[in-house]
Amino acid sequence: NYPKQVKIVEVGARDGLQNESAVSTADKVTLIDALANAGLKHIEAGAFVSPKWVPQMADSAEVIQGITRHPGIEISALTPNLKGAELALENQVDEFAIFTAASEAFTQKNINCSIEQSIERFRPVVELAQKNNIKVRGYVSCIAGCPYQGKVEPEQVLSVCKQLLALGCYEISLGDTIGVGTANQIENLLTLLLEHIPAQRLAVHFHDTYGQALANIHKALEMGISTIDSAVAGLGGCPYAKGASGNVATEDVIYLLQGLGISTEIDLERLAKAGWQICDALNKAPVSKVSLALKNT
Ligand code: HMG
Ligand code: MG
Prior knowledge:
8 strands, PYR_CT, Aldolase_TIM, EC 4.1.3.4, hydroxymethylglutaryl-CoA lyase, hydroxymethylglutaryl-CoA lyase activity
């Protein structure tokens, strides 16, 4: 009983590149334009975070000003506080993304406050968004484990999700930041969350550190989740989660979905090309197995 259609949120240009130093603004613009041409409709293009914390995202305004905007393609950006939200608004971002975690330790390291303080900090962000008819997505990191405190209880994930929904988020993205979750753990977590939250309001955001992302996505699809975050070429990682590797590769997710007969309207070949292009700029090969396989056929 898979969903008939799946929404892909492409996070390569943000999550993928926030860990890469020395990517030019022009290369980021080329990447995002290529992703749009491949058919991606939801593209996270940057982060209006402190440049002292994540210098890699300091050119987000220039990137967003440089890309070609198309009707029907939503551009989103991270907005950790009012300052970030104001910058995102100035740069005509279609969707804000606020982010906190189910782990106190990670929240401190990543955004320098407690979970409770983060929620308070997001209030004016959501108010600004609502005044301007901008949708707000909420991220919860460390849903399956934390690089600093280890175990994270599903009840804690639920509590943070509920707080973000109460604030006004239309969707919550569940981040396995360090990619430690396995299918049975994800099943247990989603079983609890789905008792309280409709499936349409949940997205999954799996990093592939332990190679479990596709298995976890398959489990989530079986449970009715129809929004998947992924990064072209499997780029990614979080600078405040040591050892966290890339997001699940968009190419691999599209291949899985095609095999399951789920429509995505994404051109896999163009997508793979976009991945090779940014990887050439990074002087490495894509992590996507599908991309590597296509290259050899
Ligand atoms: P802080 O140091 O506590 O904040 O940082 P502050 O308000 O004291 O500001 C410090 C300085 O930053 C000031 O500059 C501010 O003006 C400036 P100064 O006066 O010293 O010159 N500043 C800003 N500049 C530009 N844009 C802003 C902004 N805010 C403050 N928005 C803060 C708190 C939240 C700002 C900081 O901790 C931060 O930026 N953190 C972001 C960390 C980050 O981006 N992490 C990666 C993204 S999350 C992730 O990857 C996980 C995810 O993928 C899901 C998953 O995988 O789990 C989403
Ligand atoms: Mg992430």
